Amino acid sequence: MKVSVVTGDIARYSADAIIVDVFEGAAHPSGATIAVDELLKGAIAQMISQNEVKGKVGEVTLIHTLGKLPAARVAVLGLGKQAELNTDKVRRAMAECCRVLRRAGAQKIASVIHGTKDGALPVSEAVQATAEGCILGLYTFRKYCTKAPEEPQVEEVHIVSTEADASALERACERGSIIAEATNLARSMINEPSNRMTPAEMAEIAHDLARSYGLQVRVLHREQMRAKGMGALLGVAQGAAQPPAFILLRYNGNPQSSEVLALVGKGITFDSGGISLKPSEGMEEMKDDMSGGAIVMNAIAAISRLRLKANVIAMCGATENLPSGTALKPGDVLKALNGKTIEVISTDAEGRLTLADVLSYAVREGFSPIVDVATLTGACRVALGQVATGLFTNNQELANKVLEAAAKAGEKMWQMPMFEEYKEQNKSDIADMKNSGGRYGGAITAAQFLSEFVGVTPWVHLDIAGTAFTEKVSGYNVKGATGVAVRTLVNLVESLAA
Ligand code: BES
Ligand code: MN
Ligand code: ZN
């Protein structure tokens, strides 16, 4: 599926469907919708006056044109109240609309640029959001369905501009497409079952991304990790038959600077809990426990494709967490790369063990700042539900930048406290710390555990346990992996580069 910007007149545009918009509470069509409505002999105005078209965000009304204009159908898309319009509503509405049109069999779609009349939205932002909404909303993961879908796939969406020189808008469209495609690739990695998406497969994909987008790639294997002293990650990996992999992807977009931003992702390709075995109900979702890794790998790919002026490294410690005769056991003590010792209370708190080594590695290499992304705790999902990602930090300035980047992406994030008192719960009698602080404040004690491995390096931890995966179709998310945080990370690097 390709989204592009073309110069033309939407009312005269030939396509399987054209998309025009209406605002909630408006008495009449406005903007480009007026000309289309005139050709439709006032059908849209009538539907508005009879309250059949309400204009709520993502509401889609299909009208067959019966030859009154070149397009076969007009989709009247609600954008909500005009005064409350933002880019995320454009993204969500376009996603809903594209899925309705796919169901109707449309393959060639054209759309107006939403909400830019009277300067409500900057036009390039509206175009980028439109491209993102289409590509994210039409995402499917069907590779294991042997039956073809009932409807054909949408082939192209043309964003129709009236400007003769649309080159600035083409760049915005390209930018949205790159970011959305990266998100979809992350989704596909996450949706893959764990018998396919092994640590070795993640490493293979890292090599593919490096080849395609000009990144440096390095993969450390078990013996190399042992030589470095990555005892915490290897402790998790020791029960699994699939060998672990420490994956590094590097992008040097600013050779004049020695600063390198580290993006760290949790890469548990399947989390059974290990000897502290999880209940079997819903365990299949734990194939998504490598979401953080997939997200940072694809974020850096997008960062490279966009040629952002920054140096970035993506790192993922990938392994399965499985029970076996060689598996890590509760009570075992592990030594992390930075020399700290950890008493394992629960082998199901494996994410923080793997991150301990990767974060230590990042600090040792002098990478700064560090942002990690992890499906870390069920407690974070309990606290914030499936709406917001939990954000934890030791540096408010960096946190504010991440929050701003997230807001721009329409990805909801919520900062959680890091009061010293929580550290108490991680104290061990026989080692420097233990890997579980109990049920109370579980997302925070997990973050406090991670903070022991970053020291004073500015760091943000994103707990995506509630937001990485969804059971329902809504806006630009479809069932399965959401790819949350890819877009935030790209925005963050762009803001740091500026
Ligand atoms: N991968 C899980 C966290 C998770 C749970 C992600 C549900 C998505 C949905 C993590 O490794 C885990 O098992 N955490 C434990 C920690 C506990 C043992 C301290 C948890 O949340 O129960
Ligand atoms: Mn676990
Ligand atoms: Zn886990």
Question: Can you tag this structure with a few keywords?
Answer:
498 residues, Leucine Aminopeptidase, subunit E, domain 1, Aminopeptidase, eight-stranded mixed β-sheet, six-stranded mixed β-sheet, 14 helices, 20% strand, elongated, binds ligand BES, binds manganese (II) ion
Shape: elongated
Q: How many individual helices?
A: 14
Write down the domain tally. Answer: 2
| Largest β sheet strand count, sense and barrel closure | 8 strands, mixed
Structural class: alpha/beta
Cα-atom radius of gyration: 24 Å
Helix content: 25-40%
Strand % is 15-25%
Could you describe the 3D structure shown?
The protein folds into two domains: 2-163, 3-Layer(aba) Sandwich (Leucine Aminopeptidase, subunit E, domain 1), CATH 3.40.220; 180-497, Zn peptidases (Aminopeptidase). Helix content is 35%, strand content 20%. The chain is built from 14 helices and 19 strands. It has an eight-stranded mixed sheet, with helices on both faces. The protein has a six-stranded mixed sheet with strand order 1-6-5-2-4-3, with helices on both faces. A three-stranded mixed sheet has the order 11-12-16. A hairpin with a 5-residue loop joins strand 11 (333-335) and strand 12. The longest helix has 25 residues, at 167-191. It starts with a strand and ends with a helix. The mean pLDDT is 97. The site of ligand BES has 16 residues, from helix 11.
